[in-house]
Amino acid sequence: GVQTCALPISADKPKDKKQAQKEAAKPSVDKLLNQAQERFRDGKREEALALISQAIKQEPRSGEARFARGRFYDVQKQPQKAIEDYDEVQKLEPTFPDVYYNRATAHFKLAHIADAVRDFDTFVTMVPQQEPLRWERGIALYYAGKFEEGQKMFE
Predict the structure, then answer these.
(1) Class of residue 18 by CB neighbours under 10 A (exposed 0-12, middle 13-18, buried 19+)
(2) Could you give the 3-state DSSP secondary structure of residue 81?
(3) Nearest to residue 3, comparing CAs of 66, 63, 68, 53?
(4) Full-model pTM
(5) Average pLDDT of every residue of the chain
(6) Which of 3, 81, 84, 116 has the greatest number of beta carbons closer than 10 A?
(7) CB within 8 Å of 110: residues ≥ 6 apart
(8) Pairwise CA distance, residues 107 & 95, whole Å
(9) Which of 25, 53, 21 is nearest to 39 (CA)?
(10) 56: buried, middle or exposed (CB in 10 Å: 19+, 13-18, 0-12)?
(11) Are 100 and 123 in contact (CB under 8 A)?
(12) What is the per-residue pLDDT across 134-148, written as a single tens digit (0 to 9) for each?
């Protein structure tokens, strides 16, 4: 099945009247991302990517938009491009745990085992209750030669 992007979305309030008018003239990043998600669900991949890219152009420091594009590339089996966006999200929002998880799985797909283990470890440090659910980390630990630690993930 087709995966959809579930994005953490927050709207910033305009700072003054002039900015509010300027913002009202163009679709918000949230609206663009919602439209992209609809296009993606409808199988219109190129339109979805164009809307996400428009959101990034409009708000280059939007972690949500870059995360959405990373997810897009991930689902489209382009893990290297996904990693590039996840790297940007990590710089913009270093406390957002999902970026580490998603980047770890993308690294794993490219056999970047040490990078995958590092990101899985960061993720479980940030969200320790998720550790038992992350079997991918166990596989990555196994490939990294950390057999005992990896085996514990499956006990």
Answers:
(1) exposed
(2) helix
(3) 68
(4) 0.74
(5) 84
(6) 116
(7) 79, 80, 83
(8) 19
(9) 53
(10) buried
(11) yes
(12) 777 777 877 788 777
